[in-house]
Automatic annotation (TrEMBL):
Its cofactor is a metal cation. This is Homoserine dehydrogenase. Keywords: Amino-acid biosynthesis, Metal-binding, Methionine biosynthesis, NAD, NADP, Oxidoreductase, Sodium, Threonine biosynthesis. InterPro entries: ACT-like_dom_sf (IPR045865), ACT_dom (IPR002912), Asp/hSer_DH_NAD-bd (IPR005106), HDH (IPR016204), HDH_cat (IPR001342), HDH_CS (IPR019811), NAD(P)-bd_dom_sf (IPR036291). GO terms for biological process: methionine biosynthetic process; threonine biosynthetic process.
Length: 427
C-alpha cells in the first residue's frame, strides 16, 4: 500500500487530537484513504515542551523549513491558529505543491480568496471543514451536497465557548468568568478567548459559510458583530420569564442584499436552536430546492475537531492517490450588495432603568409609536419612589434604524435613567 506523509503544524488541542486519531484509527483510515497515512514531522514552538499526546521525539521540530523542505511530505496540516505565520506557512505549502488542511477560521475568513486561488493555481487542495462548527460536517455539505440549491438563509450557533457560557449561566446561574475559565480548560476557547466572547470567532465562521452559500465574497468587515459580554444574569432571567432563551446567533440572509450579523439573540424556548446547549453547535441552511436542513453536533474540542481535520486529510490523500484535484473551487462567482444594518428588521428586547413615576411609561411608548415601533410585551418590576426600577419591553418587528432613532430620544427623557440592554429577537 502507498504511503502518504503528513506534516503537522501545531500540536495543541486540535493538533494532538489529529495525531491521536491518525494513530488510533490507522488501519481503518488506511483502508478508506487507499494509502497508509503517516505523520512525518510535527512543528512545535519548543521541542522540549510537554504535549497532550505522545509524539515520537524525532518527529518534533521547531523549524518550519524542515517541514517545507521534507520532500516526502505530501499534505501539510495547519493547526497553529491566527494569521501570522499561519498564512505564510499555508501559502508556501500550496506553492510548493502540497495540499493543505486547516482549522483556521480567521485565516480563511480574512484570506480565503487568496488561499483558494493559490491552491487552484498550483493544482492542489485546500480543505477547511474544521474551521466552522468543529466536528460538524458543514463546509463540505454546503459546498457539495447542497450545490444544486440557491441558498437564501444560514442561521445558527457557531461558537462552542459562548454557547457553553450562556448555557451554564442560564441553567446554573454560573458566573461568566468562571465558566469561561472552564471552557478554556476544556480546550473550547481560542488562544485569546476575546475572539470567542466578543463574537469575532462566530463572525469569521459566518463570513465563510455566507461566502459559500450566497456565492459572493463576504469579507469580515461586512459582518455586524456583537459579543456576549454585555449579557447580564437579569437579561437571561427576564428572557426566561418572557418564554425565550438567549443564544449567540450568526445570521446570514439574502433578500434585497446580503445581511450578515452576529449578536446575542432571544429565541422562543420552543425553537430548535433553544435546546442546543453546552459546546454543541447547530446551523440551519435554507435552500430553494431542499427547503430547510439543520446540521448539529459538537462545535469545538480536541477529538470532534480532530475528526473534521482527519476527514479532510483522508479526502486530500484520496485525491493524491487518484492524481486528481478535489472539490468545487472557490464559489464566489458574484459580487453582491450588502444590506446596511439600519435597514435590517427584527423585534427587540429592551431593558431600561426608569423612575417609577406616573407618565414615564406613557412617554416611552409614545416615542416608540412615533417611530412605528409597537410593543408585544411589557414587564415592570418593583416599586420605589426614589430609585430607578427595571422596565423590560419586547417590540414587534421594526427597522433597526427606526428603533435606534427612537432610543436616542428616549435616552434623553426625564425619568429614564439608562437603557441597560438592547437584544434582538428572532422568531
Ligand atoms: N480548539 C477547538 O475546539 C477548535 C479550534 N479550531 C482552530 O484550530 C486551530 C488550533 O486551535 P487549538 O488547537 O485550539 O489551539 P492551541 O493553542 O491549543 O494549539 C496551537 C498550538 O500551536 C502552537 N504554535 C503557535 N504558533 C506556532 C508556531 N509559529 N510554530 C509552532 N507552533 C506554534 C501553540 O504553541 P503555544 O501554545 O506555545 O503558543 C499551540 O501548541 C485554530 O485555528 C483554532 O481556531 C477550530 C475548531 C475548533
Ligand atoms: N473557539 C471556538 C473553537 C471552535 O471553532 C469555539 O468555541 O467554537
Ligand atoms: Na465542521
Amino acid at each position: 500500500m502507498e504511503e502518504i506523509k503528513v506534516g503537522l503544524l501545531g500540536c495543541g488541542t486540535v493538533g494532538s487530537g489529529v495525531y491521536k486519531i491518525l494513530q488510533e484509527n490507522k488501519n481503518s483510515i488506511a483502508n478508506k484513504s487507499g494509502a497508509k497515512l503517516t505523520v512525518n514531522k510535527v512543528l512545535v514552538k519548543d521541542t522540549s515542551q510537554k504535549l497532550a499526546v505522545d509524539v515520537e521525539k524525532d518527529l518534533l521540530t521547531d523549524d518550519f523549513e524542515e517541514i517545507i523542505n521534507d520532500s516526502e511530505i505530501d499534505i501539510i496540516v495547519e493547526l497553529i491558529g491566527g494569521v501570522h505565520p499561519a498564512k505564510e506557512f499555508v501559502l508556501r505549502a500550496l506553492n510548493s505543491g502540497r495540499s493543505v488542511v486547516t482549522a483556521n477560521k480567521e485565516l480563511i475568513a480574512k484570506y480565503g480568496s487568496e488561499i483558494l486561488s493559490t491552491a487552484d493555481e498550483n493544482g492542489v487542495d485546500i480543505y477547511f471543514e474544521a474551521s466552522v462548527g468543529g466536528g460538524i460536517p458543514i463546509i463540505s455539505p454546503l459546498k457539495e451536497d447542497l450545490a444544486g440549491n440557491s441558498v437564501n438563509k444560514i442561521m445558527g450557533i457557531v461558537n462552542g465557548t459562548t454557547n457553553y457560557i450562556l448555557t451554564k449561566m442560564g441553567q446554573e446561574g454560573a458566573e461568566f468568568d468562571e465558566v469561561l475559565e472552564k471552557a478554556q480548560e476544556l480546550g473550547y476557547a481560542e488562544a485569546d478567548p476575546t475572539s470567542d466572547i466578543a463574537g469575532h470567532d462566530a463572525a469569521y465562521k459566518l463570513a465563510i459559510l455566507s461566502s459559500i452559500g450566497f456565492e459572493s465574497r463576504v469579507n469580515i468587515d461586512e459582518v455586524y458583530i456583537e459579543g456576549i459580554t454585555e449579557i447580564a444574569k437579569e437579561d437571561i432571567s427576564y428572557a426566561k420569564e418572557l418564554g425565550y432563551k438567549i443564544k449567540l446567533l450568526a445570521i446570514g440572509k439574502e433578500d434585497e442584499g446580503i445581511e450578515v450579523r452576529v449578536h446575542p439573540t432571544l429565541i422562543p424556548k420552543e425553537h430548535p436552536l433553544a435546546s442546543v446547549n453546552d459546546v454543541f453547535n447547530a446551523v440551519f441552511v435554507e435552500g430553494d430546492a431542499i427547503g430547510e436542513v439543520m446540521f448539529y453536533g459538537p462545535g469545538a474540542g480536541q477529538m470532534p475537531t480532530g475528526s473534521a481535520v482527519v476527514g479532510d486529510i483522508i479526502t486530500a490523500a484520496r485525491n493524491i492517490d487518484f492524481g486528481a484535484q478535489g472539490r468545487i473551487p472557490c464559489t464566489c462567482f458574484e459580487d453582491k450588495e450588502f444590506k446596511p444594518q439600519a435597514q435590517t428588521e427584527t423585534s427587540f428586547y429592551l431593558r431600561l432603568n426608569v423612575c417609577d413615576r406616573p407618565g414615564v411609561l406613557g412617554k416611552i411608548t409614545g416615542l416608540l409609536g412615533e417611530y412605528g415601533v409597537s410593543l408585544e410585551s411589557v414587564i415592570q418590576k418593583g416599586r420605589s419612589a426614589n430609585q430607578a426600577v427595571p422596565l423590560v419591553l419586547v417590540t414587534h418587528k421594526v427597522k433597526e434604524g427606526n428603533l435606534v432613532s427612537a432610543l436616542d430620544e428616549i435616552k434623553a427623557l426625564d425619568g429614564v435613567k439608562e437603557i441597560a440592554n438592547l437584544i434582538r429577537v428572532e422568531e
